[in-house]
Design a protein that fits this description.
Layout (H helix, E strand, L loop, with lengths): L2 E4 L6 E4 L45 E4 L9 E7 L14 E3 L2 E3 L5 E6 L13 H18 L7 E8 L11 E7 L4 H17 L3 H12 L3 E4 L3 E4 L10 E5 L11 H22 L4 E6 L14 E6 L6 H6 L2 E3 L3 H10 L2
Helix pairs in contact: 1-4
Length: 338
């Protein structure tokens, strides 16, 4: 019997279509892994993110390098402005009304985090130190960008594979800082605040405690973090990564937590690559707004969603999602993958 489940944070319903249950082999993937097996080279002359092609990107705003000058070889990670930005750094917001409609200038920031000089690797086969550098770069850029009072929110995300929206295959993530708080994040914050007013507890902390009690949807547990297949999963093999300690802003994550999380993030990608044969995927960092870093009711987390099914008319028309693989099965499969 299919089951309707409600997300307790934003009251979104999903359909867990257990009678249409699919196993990993039932999903078809066209994303080829950059796995160093010779099919994809370590370097491409026409890739702007590859080692030695630094002049093909805008000047870097951050780099971890071995004493070499900016915008030259010798780097381990670079952050550069997006060449075709969704939002631009310079200018004033100039909010205005056009009758019924509100408009403002597209002021913000759009940056690319080039995770490694190598073209043919994934997060799953980077070493933990390289993943740790990625996390530190996110934290460093958040610290810098929040100094601009016009910026209200910083979204970090990764598109891996063309089906997930990636236009370049070289390993990279993106950061977009916006002058408004995105609708999805606002819905989460409102849902969290409603729960907090009723129970004086963070709902994500309650979810962590519930999942530790149930044990059926846990994928990975460390001393500091928990990975779960969420109860009302929208997509097959969707997982959430949450710090056990209550932290509203990713920027306030401690060095010890960064180190622990670097192993965890790499392990999640490694398991997904192994179980689903290198699926295209997105991950999104949900964190508190720039000027509200210590909210008692919000909790930063990463949502990881492999692109193994299509969102179609029913989903677009209703806001419901149909998920053919129950999260309990997902947790069991991923947990047991070695």
């Amino acid at each position: 019997m299919p089951q309707l489940r409600k997300d307790p944070i934003i009251d979104r319903w999903v359909i867990i279509a257990s009678e249409r249950s699919k196993r990993p082999a039932d999903y078809n993937h066209s994303h080829l892994p950059p796995d160093g097996n010779g099919t994809i080279p370590e370097h491409k002359d026409d890739c702007p993110f590859c080692y030695g092609n630094e002049d093909q990107t805008p000047p870097e705003v951050l780099a971890y390098r071995d004493g070499t000058p900016p915008d030259t070889p010798g780097w381990r990670l670079r952050v550069v402005p997006n060449k075709y930005p969704a939002l631009q750094v310079d200018g004033e917001l100039n909010r205005a009304g056009m009758g019924l409609y509100d408009v403002m200038n597209g002021v913000g920031a759009h940056e690319v985090i080039i995770e490694t000089p190598k073209h043919n690797v994934t997060l799953g086969n980077l070493n933990p130190k390289e993943v740790e550098s990625l996390l530190w770069s996110i934290k460093d850029r958040m610290t810098e960008l929040r100094k601009d009072s016009k910026l209200m929110y910083i979204m970090v995300f990764k598109n891996c594979g063309s089906e997930a929206g990636a236009t370049l295959e070289h390993p990279h993530s993106q950061l977009i800082a916006t002058p408004i708080i995105p609708k999805r994040v606002s819905e989460e914050i409102i849902g969290c605040e409603t729960h907090y007013k009723l129970r004086e507890r963070c709902i994500y902390c309650d979810i962590i405690n519930q999942e530790l009690f149930d044990q059926r949807r846990i994928v990975i547990e460390t001393d500091m973090f928990l990975v779960i297949a969420p109860f009302a999963s929208r997509f097959p093999f969707e997982v959430w990564m949450l710090p056990k300690r209550h932290i509203a802003s990713f920027r306030l994550t401690s060095p010890e937590e960064i180190k622990d999380f670097s192993w965890l993030l790499r392990e999640v990608v490694r398991k997904m690559d192994g179980v689903l044969n290198y699926p295209p995927y997105n991950f999104m960092l949900h964190t508190s707004p720039c000027q509200d870093e210590e909210l008692p009711h919000y909790h930063w987390h990463i949502e990881f969603t492999p692109k193994v099914t299509k969102v179609a008319g029913f989903e677009w028309g209703t806001g419901f999602y149909i998920n053919p693989t129950p999260p309990e099965e997902v947790a069991e499969i991923l947990k047991n993958y070695q």
